[in-house]
Predict the 3D structure of the following.
Amino acid sequence: MSRPPQPPAPAAVKLVTAFGSPFAHRVEVALTLKGVPYELVMEDLANKSNLLLAHNPVHRMVPVLLHGDLPAVCESLVIVEYVDEAFADGPAVPRILPADPYDRAAARFWANFIDNKCLKPLWLSMWSNGEAQERFVRETRESLAILDAQLDGKRFFGGDALGFVDLAACTLALWLDVLQEVAGVRLVVDGEYPALRRWAKEYTSDETVRRCLPDRDQLAAYFAANKARFTSLVHAAVQQQ
Amino acid sequence: MAEEGKGEVKLLGLNVSPFAIRARMALRLKGVSCEYLEQDLFHKGDLLLRSNPVNRKVPVLIHDGKPICESLVIVQYVDEVWAAAGDGEGTAILPADPYGRAIARFWAAYIDDKLFPALMGIMKATTEEARAEKAKETFAAVEQLEKAFAECSDGKSFFGGDSVGYVDLALGCLLPWFGAVREMFGLEIIDAANTPLLAAWAERFGETAAAKEVLPEPDKAVEYAKKLQAHWTAAAAAAAAK
């Protein structure tokens, strides 16, 4: 008696990542939301492997997604959209970006705003000094205020459920606090940005997110161990501006 | 013919803004008629400030009274809303397959994150040394895009294949500024010797109906660059005086 034909096994998914990367975290949450099994390939960013350099020659950064035999997909938000589109089948599979084109445009706008107007100056503010640092602090705080207002009583940026913008903002849910502690830079004074603080609790309590969040103490240790390296990288970047 | 009943479309732009050019070309590719409102970015109007309170920049697409901001967000929106429309030349701006879309989005982001700031750095530089540094960065980015073109085009005319696509718009909008940099500083950003594929692509892009309609002459960009330089100088002087 012959066996019925088997459907082809789904192509394997590997995620090249590094401990503590909020950008890789975005992709892990996306894959987990979609119920896609994946294997993590850990990188040491101070000592990049040939695999990483081969798959992401342009930026040499994590995350990098390897889906079956396809060449690498790079840049975290590009990967998240890819995951949303490539793994869309199935009635129970949640959407990461909304269905409506206008809402999708709004989600892309805010994700772009978070990356460029909030997270870039945030990182620079932690490891710089003097006038440049003051400028970055100011810029970050302005952006935090805008995001706080944008939440406008919603549970998540995406509404009732996690979405694209929440993933984009993940740094603000855990990494922001840890960075402030380790770098000794106070961006947020007690009581400020109440909507953002509420959102951070919702985000870090979410069942899917918790499976992908790094341990807080380990994250603090990682930043502390790399403080000198980050400071020198940021110093060089500021000189180039 | 644009689809009927898709609502009222306005675009706030600036003739030389590469970002506004992307949005205008996307609408043109889809045959969408829109009311184009040229903005004065040195004296921003109410409609711009109300429609884009966060960034106060062009382009802004206003569709049935609802604003959409950020050029690449607008291009994707236009591609999705007017999905079936077009002038018959091949109408999708982004390809249908998720991997192709990811690669297009990757290179468009690269253009915005690496190429554009370096190019503007050439304009903004106040010393020859700084200018040379930014020129080096710009050439490095263009060399990457030469490789990207070889991969994406797969032997065809455009990054998007047979017709203008997402990355073509993302890069093509900078052609007037490459021309301006040639006129102002004698730098050939897309040099036929170093980047032959892009040089040939640039000519083909410039010949498309949409580009002919929307791309300004480089001397318009030169004119605007001089205004910007005066503005930057004044701003720096004001900051130094404080």
Q: What stands out?
A: The interface with chain A takes residues 54-55, 63, 66, 68-70, 72-74, 76-77, 80-81, 98-99, 101-103, 105-106, 109-110, 133, 144 of chain B (CB under 8 Å). The first strand of chain B starts at residue 9 and ends at 13. The radius of gyration of chain B is 18 Å. The mean pLDDT of chain B is 94.
